[in-house]
Amino acid sequence: MNWRNNPQLQERLAAEYALGTLRGRARQCLERWMRENAALSRAVAEWQARLAPLALAVRPLPPPARVWRAIEARLPGAARPGLWDSVAFWRSLGLGASGAAAVLLAAVALVSPQAPVPAPAPVVLKVPSTEMAAVYLAVLSDPKTNKPLLLVSAGRHADQLQVRTLDPSIRVSGKDLELWALPAGGVPTSLGLVGDAERSMVKLAAAADKSLANVPALAISLEPKGGSPTGRATGPVLAIGPCVKFW
Amino acid sequence: MSPPADPLASLLAACAQGDRAAFERLYRDTAPKLFGVAMRILRREDWAEDVLQECYVRIWDHARDYRPGLAAPMTWMTSIVRNRCLDWLRRPNLEVRDEEGELIEAVESDRPGPLAALEASAGARALKKCLEALEAKQRQAIALAYFDGLSHSELASHLREPLGTVKTWVRRGLLRLKGCLEAP
């Protein structure tokens, strides 16, 4: 198990990562270890270089012109960059946890009674004082106005998220709200659909400690009834915010 | 080892400075190769297009993270595309691959297969020679994993061999490959 003191195992993991046969959790673990271990990331780079001629031997295939148009539209400064597609937004997710916490605090400040602007109804966050169990918390706000729209929370061992809709006007009839986890450096993954009630629950595949461990932010997108047909957000991002673990 | 004057490296450096024209040239010069890689693994044009789009946005965004000393530009970009393809295949709600069977044919029609095309550079020739020195089963498993993105269990069912056997082929094949490539 201890790969650090086992050069042979490191070498094998690096090789299978580069080949592509290391999958699932093992692949994610290795990506995490690579960030903290220069020798391992060098071993992976060496294997990628060894195998690279294989990729170059694959017959080239010119992609359709629409691909470049779509890429151009997603670059910063494009005519109508959706937040989801905005590189600046993805870069902002590179913030460390403290940065994320600061943004969250700012978001909470917005909903606090002291907020100077025409604030929505104040949200009081109650943390049970007797049992200070760790809790995940996300305030999702309108990306344009920063108005808080939803509050998402879960105990660390809970296998469901509590979602409270702060502003019912976020709903659009005939459409569903889909909640997304935005993992650091990864691809957004759907957590599920948000119910119509003011308070609803989204079932998690695993306990929050697992599902949200590497998820610095959550987002809500507007999707056709039943959720995104593609596995990726297809509609506009209506709300977004950092997801922070509190003790 | 990357040659010091790889024009792609200069384009990436310009991208890191926000040079959109350089990015477009980078795309023109590399997209057909990377689209070929994505199509080979994903076998569906719409998926390969989505992946390519995401990866180029990522390349633009992370151009400043590119380290010339660590990888050749094409290796770096290929790794981004391959990683994204493998992630893509892990999506839980994935439909059956290649509904339109002609796509797989189109990709597979590049007979006698990509291994034969491994003549482009000295590094490629060395890799080809070393792959050819492997046992046939080892070579086949490694090629399927790399070109087609098959996992161990997919390899096992494709090759109709027990999972453990296939894992051993891959492991030993990679070991021998490294030994061969590093031999003087």
Please describe the structure with a list of short key phrases separated by commas or semicolons.
heterodimer; A: 247 residues; alpha+beta; 8-stranded antiparallel β-sheet; 7 helices; B: 184 residues; mainly alpha; 70% helix; globular
Structure description:
The complex is a heterodimer of chains A (247) and B (184). Chain A is 33% helix and 23% strand. In chain A, 34% of the residues are buried. The radius of gyration of chain A is 21 Å and the shape is globular. Chain A has an eight-stranded antiparallel sheet with strand order 5-4-7-8-1-2-3-6. Chain A has helices spanning 7-19, 24-36, 38-57, 65-74, 87-92, 97-111, 208-211, and strands at 135-141, 148-155, 160-165, 175-182, 189-194, 199-203, 217-224, 237-246. The longest helix of chain B has 23 residues, at 20-42. With 184 residues, chain B is mainly alpha-helical.
